[in-house]
Amino acid sequence: MAEQEKNQESFARGRRRSSQSHQAILQAAREVLEQVGYQAMTIEAIAARAGVGKKTIYRWWPSKAAVALESLTSHTEVYVPFPDTGSLERDLTLYFELSFPGLQGKSGTVLSGLAAEAQLDPVFAHEFQRTFIVPRKQELVALLQRGLQRGELAPDTNLEVLADLIYGAKWYRFLLHPAPLDDVFAREIVKLILRLRSEASRT
């Protein structure tokens, strides 16, 4: 019995150390990304900052791209909850209000650097799409689907294309900075989307 308890305590300590190392690596990767960008980031630099060996990093992540993406997505300011208030107008307004801060400041700098890298590196582009873009688009489509089911969009609305239009407008302003990502912009997009409902009701 005593031996069993000792083994359980040892396992718990090991799990805590693993969790601490995992978080330290993600934090280190985040800091290196902010300082030098994705292209100049190295596994060696992450390991040195986190106080671990390179083997520890490769135990959890197969590549620099993988650790970079998890370091980005693990930060709460980048995660955008998709509201379900029972109103498409309110859901979309909240979605924009919650998503814009993650595209500004250090998070925005890191994300724009990763988006640029995705244009140059096909392997990284695949990971970026798989772990960052696609899951978020799927959640946005689900948000729009709820609105469609409530009769807030025309029955024949192509939700995939509508989600692309929303992301396209947001990322255009995010990457090229022609105008700010602000409440005025959010309201105008929501107004245009809701116009689809009013157009449908007249036909």
From TrEMBL:
It comes from the Bacteria. Signal peptide: none annotated. InterPro entries: Homeodomain-like_sf, HTH-type_TetR-like_transc_reg, HTH_TetR, Tet_transcr_reg_TetR-rel_C_sf, TetR_C. The keyword Transcription applies. GO terms for molecular function: DNA-binding transcription factor activity; transcription cis-regulatory region binding. The keyword DNA-binding applies. Residues 42-61 bind DNA. Residues 19-79 form the HTH tetR-type domain. Keywords: DNA-binding, Transcription, Transcription regulation. This is TetR family transcriptional regulator. It comes from Dictyobacter arantiisoli. The lineage of its organism: Bacteria, Bacillati, Chloroflexota, Ktedonobacteria, Ktedonobacterales.
